[in-house]
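Q: I'm building a small set of examples for a reading group on sequence design. Run inverse folding on the following structure and report the sequence directly after it, with nothing in between.
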């Protein structure tokens, strides 16, 4: 089964990065995108390891990016006993479309920048 998602959108907030007990970084942010019905949709994006650290350093609320990865589904039982479902993207790659340049070193060669 193929599971590949590519979305372009804007960050709804600065990425948040955390570290698990082994010290491995993981991060998340919300991504606003335009649906086929011209409505704004929101989805959570998760990233791990170096991609999480780079996201925290270079991405910011409002940045326009392209995210590619896999779609992941979470199910749980709510306090009312009903089953709840949410979806998120597990990012494999992030490409900049438009940012404010935060975190970039102006003296560095652009080809050496991340992503």
């Amino acid at each position: 089964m193929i599971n590949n998602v590519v979305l372009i959108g804007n960050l709804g907030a600065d990425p948040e990065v955390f570290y698990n007990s082994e010290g491995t970084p993981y991060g998340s942010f919300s991504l606003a995108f335009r649906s086929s019905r011209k409505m704004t949709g929101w989805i959570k994006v998760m990233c791990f390891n170096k991609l999480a650290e780079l996201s925290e350093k270079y991405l910011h609320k409002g940045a326009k990016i392209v995210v590619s990865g896999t779609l992941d589904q979470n199910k749980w039982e709510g306090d009312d006993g009903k089953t709840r479902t949410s979806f998120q993207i597990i990012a494999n790659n992030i490409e900049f479309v438009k940012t404010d340049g935060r975190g970039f070193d102006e003296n560095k060669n652009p080809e050496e920048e991340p992503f």
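DSSP finds one helix and six strands in the chain.
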